[in-house]
């Protein structure tokens, strides 16, 4: 990942917030993935995202404090700062999990816990004859059509974290996704080329 | 909700953990719902769940410490305690958000942030002629079939938090769900009786 200095931080309180919420949620997903698959690379990404989130939180504080012009506004702005802190707490928790992966302090029960939770994490390789190949995430809309939320994609040696709507699925991609066991199994059948059609197609 | 003393706490480390992870995730969903819809009842539920999670964490610590019989085991068990603390941190963050709803310290930006996040919260009323009516959540499997995760259901004056697979959808139910905007819109069309078929039917 690049230096944060070169990265655009959104310019207003609302957009900073949305970025913070999305980032914290991605961090939790990636932290669980790193625990389940014992992938240190994913764990390191979580720690980098934590730094990014701290930066966002700092910008939020600066902008919020500058915006306060009356006691009433100051009170509302305090609420914004509290919400920022709550999101920051979630990101710290995700970072704590990631550190356990990096320090190799893992217990066999961890894998079972994640696998047996209602909402879990899975990975699946995309076969060359899958209907996913060559389509963008926007076209596929896997969250709606399969119930699986794509957290990351491994392409050869490279990881794509937080893929966006223009990311195109390639043969051999390994998709890391979050969903119910049923939803993940359904996506697996599609990715392996067993199922040749998705809802809405 | 009942007194926790009367509630069965799972009996082994793994099951306590799974319960903790599911509870923390439910708390985050409910906290965002309470912020978005300014529902104090949901916010109070979040605070009750926080107490339950503290109790689970306490049981986890007791069982983990009792299980340690060697320095190597003690190290692994420390990892379990750290994971428990990370999940507890997430639940504290959710509780902080819920407290803001109860103290009415809200800022208009909060609603926008949740609505414009990638994954968001929505609510929809079930019309009497919807195909959802009379089916259980297990039969419907909305997470897989629509990409929407059901967090809670309001039935008249009553809230059903964390509905399970046997919960049956009734006409007039208000479903609070988490998903992408597209997934939530899709569920709305089904709940309103506009769409008469779901994938897999």
UniProtKB/TrEMBL annotation, chains A, B:
Pfam families from the UniProt entry: PhoU (PF01895), TrkA_C (PF02080)
Assigned keywords, A-Z: Ion channel, Ion transport, Transport
RCK C-terminal domain sequence ranges: 107-193
GO molecular function ontology, one term from the record: monoatomic cation transmembrane transporter activity
Keyword Disulfide bond attached: no
Gene Ontology biological process terms in this record: potassium ion transport
PROSITE patterns for this protein: RCK_C
Gene3D superfamilies named in the record: Phosphate transport system protein phou homolog 2, domain 2, Regulator of K+ conductance, C-terminal domain
PANTHER family associated with the record: K(+)_H(+) ANTIPORTER SUBUNIT KHTT (PTHR30445)
Protein name: Potassium channel protein
């Amino acid at each position: 990942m690049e230096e944060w200095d070169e990265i655009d931080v959104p310019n207003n309180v609302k957009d900073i917030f949305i970025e913070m919420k999305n980032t914290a949620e991605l961090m939790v997903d990636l932290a669980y993935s790193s625990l389940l698959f014992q992938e240190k690379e994913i764990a390191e990404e979580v720690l980098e995202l934590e730094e990014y989130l701290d930066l966002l939180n700092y910008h939020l504080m600066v902008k919020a404090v500058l915006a306060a012009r009356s006691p009433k506004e100051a009170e509302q702005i305090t609420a914004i700062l509290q919400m920022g802190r709550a999101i920051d707490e979630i990101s710290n928790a995700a970072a704590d999990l990631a550190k356990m992966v990096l320090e190799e302090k893992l217990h066999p029960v961890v894998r079972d816990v994640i696998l047996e939770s209602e909402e879990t994490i899975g990975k699946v390789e995309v076969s060359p004859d899958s209907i996913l190949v060559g389509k963008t995430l926007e076209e596929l809309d896997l969250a709606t059509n399969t119930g699986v939320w794509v957290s990351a994609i491994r392409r050869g040696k490279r990881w794509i974290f937080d893929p966006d709507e223009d990311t195109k699925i390639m043969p051999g991609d390994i998709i890391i996704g979050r969903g119910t066991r049923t939803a993940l199994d359904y996506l697996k059948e599609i990715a392996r080329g067993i199922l040749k059609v998705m809802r809405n197609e």
